[in-house]
Specification:
Layout lengths: L35 E2 L6 H17 L14 E6 L5 H7 L1 H11 L2 E5 L4 H9 L5 E4 L1 H11 L2 E6 L7 E5 L16 E3 L5 H13 L4 H5 L2 E2 L3 H9 L5 E5 H9 L9 E5 L7 E4 L5 H12 L6 H9 L5 E3 L6 H9 L5
Parallel strand pairs: 1-8, 2-3, 2-4, 7-8, 7-9
Antiparallel strand pairs: 4-11, 5-11, 5-12, 6-9, 6-10
Helix pairs in contact: 3-10, 4-5
Length: 331
């Protein structure tokens, strides 16, 4: 039987791009109380879709393993955490899909779920072959399912979160956050939650700021929440902030960086434990050969915010694992 895909269609006609919901019998990626959120909650329709997806998959979706039709190429199921709008990521990633299909000889099926935990669930339950994960979601998936790190951008070995605020909030340093509203991104985000909270605790920021923080669900949503005055400050991925500023999505007069964290390891492409080693090698080799000197390859690098890729190592995430344990986010 063909693999079931449930599609969430955007509110605008051009946004009819899928966010695939992966049904799972496993518990959520992180067992924590539901976070405070900005914006609308889960609608009854979305709950019905989740339940329908689970019921149909339980009734008999085919094998979860990557396979090929008798007359076609193998299928490589790739998923990415939704660092920004899922539909936008899918649309903008088509050059990457085409490049990977050329280099691996596989038919690439790209999905971007509606939250970070869904990607961990998918790769842990063999619904996905290769996943683009943040540092925290990587250590979760590695602990749960033994996923194998493949490659990462050079900058991912020296990554930062930025803390932003709006003029008039009176926030110029971490110590000034006391008494102010604050926003994290997704609860499972490395640069949007785990490491910002870790450095806030190290700096002895007032505990109420962390306890009362809202979770916007994404880096772009955090930036807009701050810029629009919904919260006084927030923490987010440095690359998303840079791109939003460059693309004119943020007004420098409405938002500014007041603190940048020390470096840490973050994003990584990782394979499920049972993926054919030859396919994993082809996938890694495709990223390793990307060069800014080739115009078509530079397009792929630009959309990924990269200059070049390097091999990734599990041991590089030991410090992040410890930070997650210290914060009670990883058992």
């Amino acid at each position: 039987m063909k693999k079931l895909q449930i599609t969430i269609v955007g509110t605008n006609p051009p946004d009819a791009v899928a966010s695939v919901l992966h049904a799972s019998s496993e518990p959520p990626a992180k067992d924590t109380p539901a976070p405070n959120r900005i914006g609308k909650g889960i609608t009854p329709l979305l709950i019905v879709i989740f339940l329908a997806a689970f019921a149909l998959c339980s009734a008999g979706c085919g094998s979860n393993n990557s396979a090929s039709d008798a007359s076609g190429p193998p299928v490589l199921r790739v998923s990415m955490i939704p660092t920004t709008d899922p539909g936008k990521i899918v649309r903008e990633s088509q050059p990457l899909v085409a490049y990977l299909e050329k280099e691996t000889g596989a038919k690439v099926e790209l999905t971007v779920p509606i939250n970070y935990a869904a990607v961990v669930e998918a790769v842990a339950n063999d619904h996905v072959d290769v996943a683009y994960l943040g540092g925290f979601t990587y250590v979760q998936a590695a602990q749960r399912a033994g996923v194998v790190p493949l490659v990462q951008r050079e900058r991912d070995k020296n990554f930062h979160s930025v803390f932003i605020t709006h003029p008039g909030a009176g926030v110029e340093a971490l110590a000034d956050l006391k008494g102010h509203s604050f926003a994290f991104g997704d609860v499972n985000s490395t640069s949007g939650h785990l490491m910002p909270e870790y450095f806030m605790r190290q700096a002895q920021v007032d505990a109420d700021v962390i306890a009362r923080a809202v979770y916007t669900g994404g880096h772009d949503a955090t930036a807009l929440a701050v810029a629009n005055g919904k919260v006084d400050a927030g923490a987010m991925d440095e690359t998303v902030f840079e791109k939003m500023m460059k693309d004119g999505k943020l007004d420098p007069a409405k938002v500014k960086v007041f603190y940048t964290t020390p470096p840490f390891f973050d994003y990584v492409w990782a394979a499920r434990r049972g993926l054919d080693p030859q396919m994993a090698d082809k996938f890694s080799a495709a990223f390793m050969k990307l060069s800014v000197g080739d115009p078509s390859q530079k397009q792929v690098l630009d959309l990924l915010g990269a200059n070049r890729y390097e091999r990734a190592s599990d041991s590089d995430y030991d410090r992040l694992r410890q930070a997650a344990r210290d914060s009670g986010l990883l058992k």
